[in-house]
Structures are given as C-alpha cells and as structure tokens.
Amino acid sequence: MLELIPISLPKVNMDTLSIANEREIINEDGELERQCAKCEEWWPADPEFFHRNPRHPRGLHIYCKACMSEARRKSYNRKKARLVLNGAPDYRPLKKGGNQ
C-alpha cells in the first residue's frame, strides 16, 4: 500500500494570494498545495495525492487518497458487519495486495 508522507507547511502570506479557498496555498516553489479536509495535512494539489472530482473548481476531491482509502475500508467493513448480522450468505472478502 502506498504510504503518503506529509510535507511541511511553508510560511506564506495568505493576504497576497488569490486562490480558491483557505485550504489551498502556493508554496515557496510556486506550486499549489492543498490541505486534506480530514487529516488536515498539506499535499501537492495534483492527482497523485487527491482523487479527481469534476464537481470541484480545481477538479480534485477534498480528501487525500490515504483518507479516502481509509473511509472506504471502514464503510465496507460496516456494511459487511451489518449483512453478516442479518444472515447474508458469503460476503465478498477484501482483495489481498490490491487496492483496498
């Protein structure tokens, strides 16, 4: 599983920036960074760290990929437990080694 390592938050004057919202900044290298709405870590605002979302002005989801993966896994396990309690036959197990 890909483990994402957060980058340090640079010192940026937020008054001089014209960006979409307070969760986005331009770092010292002039690159756009985005704060995950769940873990609140800062990541480069690109599809390597955030899933695509055409409904958002920047085209990226508000949660980083690591947080989305965790949320999907929790949702899957919650649904699995509910079905097992209700006597559902054979629930599809999570794939080992794949995208979980």
Explain how this protein is built.
This protein has one helix and five strands; from the N terminus they run βββββα. The chain has 100 residues and is α+β, with helices and mostly antiparallel strands. The chain has one domain (14-85). The strands form two sheets. Strands 1-2-3 form a three-stranded antiparallel sheet, with no helix packed on it. Strands 4-5 form a two-stranded antiparallel sheet. The chain is elongated, with a radius of gyration of 18 Å. The relative contact order is 0.14.
- The tally of beta strands, per DSSP, is 5
What gap, in angstroms, lies between the N and C termini?
A: 8 Å
State the share of residues found in helices, binned by percent. Answer: 10-25%
Low-confidence stretches: 8-19
Structural class assignment: alpha+beta
Largest sheet: 3 strands, antiparallel
Q: Tell me what portion of residues adopts beta-strand conformation.
A: 15-25%
